[in-house]
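Hello forum,

I keep getting stuck at the same step: I have a sequence, I want structure tokens, and every attempt I make locally crashes halfway through. Rather than fight my setup again tonight, could one of you with a working pipeline run this one for me? It's a single chain of 356 residues.
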Amino acid sequence: IESGNIDKIATGHTLDDQAETVLFKLMRGAGTRGLAGIYPRVVGRHSTGRRDTIVVRPLLATLKADIVRHLEGIGQLWREDSTNRDLSHTRNQIRLEILPRLEGVNPSVRHKLSEAGEIARAEEEFWSEEISRLLPRVWRQEARGPVLSCRKFEEFAVATRRRLVRAAARSLGISLEFHQVEAVLAVCRQGGRTVLPGGWLAARQKSMLRFEHGSKAPAAYEYALPVPGKVAVSEAEISIEAMPLVLHQGLRYEREDLLAPEFAGRGLRVRNWRAGERFWPSHRRGARIKELLGERQIAGEEKKCWPVICCGSEVIWLRGFGVRRDFQARGVEGVLIRALPLPMCAPENAESARKP
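Reply #2:
Ran it on my machine without issues. Output:
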């Protein structure tokens, strides 16, 4: 390459490598960008002005077994990397254990995964050009920092809005997961603010979504909690679910998990606790939330973002302590309130909102 006599590098990636990559990305919760897998051709740009490095993968549509048969037929030896059979690596588990099992269900699973990657690559190529064209319409740099026009933003379909948010964040060096994109969409739609990776904060101000950076960015958030329904709280890395139910002999929950049903229709909201607020857990005296969290050695940013549920001005649920004792269900009907780990692909906060 340096001499100018070589303009491409060819690698030996096969269709098997492609299938493994697509399945690996799928298991990790990737979108179409990740599911695009291994690209047949990649251009490496040099900032020094040297000639671009082009990597091509001519065997990406060929099964490894076909290549092995061909090499055996012509008497050509090859070398296997000894680490390829080390099951401590996730990719090797996919190659040696998971894919063979999937072939028992569909013998063509490797081809199908490769085809899925091909579809995803075409989608990404289209969207990359489309988002590059649309982003300047909603995203601009101001003296106080970058802003996104919520009014123009809402003109687009949700798939476009998600990609615009990702592209805007990438321009700031921020990589967003799905639940963080959804949190930004909720803020743009209903107001409020959400904390993003790298010390960034997205907050709506009038018709603009402003992105601010700083180590002192507040961790305030507030979302509506529908009943029944679920809301993703990216700031606390959980989702909170509210589900009406009727207790029976085979269905038992602790009383601190159950909210009295008469409060379900009064506009429940999830937010982080505020200084001076008190809470009354089951089987003990009421205390300041600050003291309750301190007893459990919850501190720092985790403490600032610790979630509560409010009904009007009353804190009726505190994570780790359950429903406040005077708001708990007394009969066989109640609303189950529970905190769940935030999945890789969190549900959309369709009802997320900051209080007016």
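The first strand starts at residue 9 and ends at 10. If your local run keeps crashing, start a new thread with the error log.
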